[in-house]
Structures are given as C-alpha cells and as structure tokens.
Design brief:
Elements (H helix, E strand, L loop, with lengths): L1 H37 L14
Length: 52
C-alpha cells in the first residue's frame, strides 16, 4: 500500500510542478509584454552642428 500511495503522491506533485512552471512562464511572457509595452525609449542622436 505504501508504494501505491507514493505513486499517487508523485503524480500529484508532478502535475502541480508542471502547473507552477506554466504559470511562471505565462507571467514571464505576458508580464514582460505589459511592462515593456508601456515603456518607450526615444533615442535621438544628433551630430553637433559646426557653425564657424
């Protein structure tokens, strides 16, 4: 009986680990898009004008 309950527990733990990995991956993808989507970096490079 100990082996049967251990196998069931291992299956539950495996499912929970996969679920947690999916949640972390989703937060990383969608969270990164939300944070990077709101930030705008304006790079304005100008050459110095030589007025002599």
């Amino acid at each position: 009986m100990a082996e049967t309950s251990s196998g069931g527990t291992t299956g539950v733990v495996a499912v929970l680990v996969i679920f947690v990995i999916l949640v972390i991956a989703a937060l990383f993808v969608f969270g990164g898009r939300l944070l990077n989507g709101n930030k705008r970096i304006d790079v304005n490079i100008q050459t110095p004008s030589s007025s002599k």
